[in-house]
Amino acid sequence: MFDIGFTELLLIGLMALLVLGPERLPVAARMAGLWIGRIKRSFNSIKEEVEREIGADEIRRQLHNEDILAKERKMLEETASMAKDSLQQGVKAIEENVQSVKSSTQETVEAVTSATSVQTPAQLKQPEGIGQNKNE
User: Fold this and answer.
1) Is the CB of residue 20 less than 8 Å from the CB of residue 28?
2) Which contacts of 75-84 are long-range, i.e. CB under 8 A and separated by 24 or more positions?
3) Which of 20, 49, 65, 117 could form an SS bridge with 24, CB 3.0 to 4.6 Å?
4) How does pLDDT run along the chain (136 residues), one tens digit per residue?
C-alpha cells in the first residue's frame, strides 16, 4: 500500500530509538500498535457498513424492480381481461346479427317460394303448345 521495504522500517526504528531512547521506545511502540489496530478496525467496520449498504441498496432495487414487474403483470392481465370481454361482446353481437339475417333470409325465401308456387290465372288458361319453342 505505502511500498515501505525492510530497510525503510529499520531506518525508522533506529531514528525512534535515538529520539525516544531505550526506556520510552517500548511504550511508544505499544501505543503506535494500539493506534494502528484501532485505525484498521475503524476502516474495516466502515468497509463492512458500506458493503451492507450497497447490499441493502441492491436488495431495495431488486424489490422495487419486482414491484414494478408485478404492477405491469397486473395491468397486462387487466388489459387482457378487458380485451377478452370486448371480444366476447363483439362475437355475441355478430352472432345476433347473423341469426337476424338468417331468420330474415329464411322468411324471404319462404315468401318467394310461396309466391312462385301460385300460378296466375293466365298461366292456368294457356294451352299446351303455345308457350313452347319449336326447336325443342
Assistant:
1) yes
2) none
3) 20
4) 567 788 988 888 888 888 888 888 889 889 989 999 999 999 999 999 988 888 888 888 888 888 898 999 999 999 999 999 999 999 999 999 999 999 888 888 888 887 776 555 565 565 555 555 555 4
Phi, psi of 49 (to 5 degrees): -65, -40
How far does Cα 104 stand from its chain's mean position?
50
Confirm if 27 and 16 have CB atoms less than 8 A apart.
no
C-alpha cell of residue 34? 494500539
Q: Which cell goes with 65?
A: 424492480
**DSSP assignment of 45-56:** HHHHHHHHHHHH
Model pTM score: 0.39
Task: Collapse the DSSP code of 68 into the 3-class scheme (helix H, G, I; strand E, B; otherwise coil) and give the result.
Answer: helix
DSSP structure string for 89-126? HHHHHHHHHHHHHHHHHHHHHHHHHHHHHSPPHHHHH-
